[in-house]
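Objective 1b: paired records.
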Amino acid sequence: MRLEVAFSPQAVDPDHLVGHTAIVIDILRATTTMCAALHHGAKAVVPTGSPDQARTTAQLFEKHAVLLAGEQHAVPIPGFDLGNSPRDMTRQRVEDKTVVMSTTNGTQALLAAASARAVYPGAACNFSLLATLARQTLEADGTLVILCAGRAGASGLDDAYCAGRLVMAALNGRDAPEGLSDAAIAAVQLARRFGLGWDVPLRLSAAGRHLERLGLGADIDDAAKQDGFPALIRFRDGRVTLVEESP
């Protein structure tokens, strides 16, 4: 068994992901928002590397079938239909639509993980499904990489805490430090320090404090709801879609 955590995309070599399963976390807010969109009926979320790339990608779809969503430094992008908020992803807005998305950290992390055999975005919002996936992956494959989006190339408390919670859930009570990377052990210690409540580490994080300053604290409330958007989603062939059956 090998369970690794990378606190930012820069901390992992894409070649290292080849043949393995990766879980990508950007709890504040991209992977939470993706779960919300697909849980509420979106056909797919297409992550892109920049606002310009998102605009170009959106032109490949019929206008009535696509929405542009995203942010730069947590602020909605001018001219886009939606921001990077789970509250934007209502069924009325996104059902049967393809959401083309560009964010500061989360979409970049997904693209960085594309070399993995399978990539599953997630956060607290689909935590139980991710935990089951993690346990099944370790039993079947023996290797799992949890990739945190972080913030501006550095680690983020919010994603690291989520990773630690996920490592603990994947181990299911087992003590297996010999199978954990140093970063995975550090993430577990961090998660144990904060306990089982999501709200405090999210609000203490730099990302959380930035959202609070912008008046977006409600997004933290949504991100902190465990299994609030219970959708297992997968990034494959450039699109994030709902997994209809067990992984």
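Objective 1b, second protein:
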Amino acid sequence: MARILIVDDEVDVLIFLARELRDQDYEVETAPSGEEAIEKIKANRPHLMLLDINMPGMGGLETLKKAKEIDPHLAVVMVTAVAEEDIAKDAIKMGAYDYIQKPIDLDHLNLVVMTKIVDLTG
């Protein structure tokens, strides 16, 4: 079963996305901060991470950089507000797989996640 880590400082977003992805039969973990995400990556090696760009403390780009140092093969999908699109494009240059915008379109989210998981797991 594919493992997905969702990282967002908004608890409502974590709950909503976790429920949606668990309904798609993914193993899902959540982290409310970049710092906690790094610990979960070290411990559990997820296949894919949904990572919010704008978080207090360790922001999304710093979390992306550290995550890729730990696991260069980790697929990262950045989650961004429309105003952060340029930052999301920078994240792709840093190794992120893709980005999605808030408010999140669940059909688009499922397509992005499924496409990458199939690519990773065959």
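Residues 3-121 form a domain with the Rossmann fold fold (CATH 3.40.50.2300). The first strand starts at residue 3 and ends at 7.
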